[in-house]
Amino acid sequence: MSTPLFRTLIAEDMQTVDRVIRARLHSDVVLIRQVAEYIISAGGKRLRPVLTLLSGKALGYQGEHLYELAAMIEFIHTATLLHDDVVDESDMRRGRETANALFGNAASVLVGDFLYTRAFQMMVTTNNMQILQVMAEATNIIAEGEVLQLLNIGNTELSEQDYLQVIQYKTAKLFEASARVGALIAQGSDAQVKALADYGMYLGTAFQIIDDVLDYSGDADTIGKSLGDDLAEGKATLPLIYTMRQGDAAAADVVRQALENASRDRFHDVLAAVQSCGALGYAKNEAIKAAEQAVAAIADLPDTPVKQALVELARLSVDRNA
Question: Element (H or E) spanning 87, and its range?
Fold first, then answer.
């Protein structure tokens, strides 16, 4: 399969971002270096720094600050992963042991704190108060999203609207901020900054919905985690919410019981219930709608290869198996 345009356009830029990441990971404390290096080296899609680079370049920015901001965004994302895995008691991410499984919960939480604070040191170097304001708000909202998700564990009454609020806080907010800081450092107009921020929010929403679909339709080796993780954690994601609202009584009851018990034991029963009422198709369609809203948000940006890459990224975010 050919490499996506959004990858080829910024391949060299991403190498620079990786060099910045390595440099900024430095600490005299050996354990910090070990844990941070372990999770950063796991790779991943790096979509959030990609989004920062593309947003800045969509508005013609070529300066060095873009690399620092892209690396900063990856640090914040990595910090949230470290904390998430502790809260969720996860033992597998990206196909290998989580940092908390390998180094312990205390080390994971504290190194997550290090990455958060290092990220703020990095954004200060841009000397841009707007960027600081954006990231201060974003990290606060992400934390609220984490707490909202915690409060909703095992909640079989969760509405689709409530679900969307959680993912917009917990996941899409950082996508939005990633795009916004790229536009801000490029000194885009208010309309351009808003357009790219909206693009990021819709992209993040689509991306998370598909992640939730893949928990019931993906392949464990491909997605890098065990199927049914959301079920085992008692998370009412969109496929389950739809099944409880639109499935027949038996299907809805299976899902409710599994969520209330927060157990993977009935995963195959839940999977059958989800499939019986078309919940996965419904959820994927909602993700496609969000991706198309992302595309519409940047309609007025200059027609360049970078804009084309952003359109491609939005559509690929829902057409994936990992």
Answer: helix 65-88
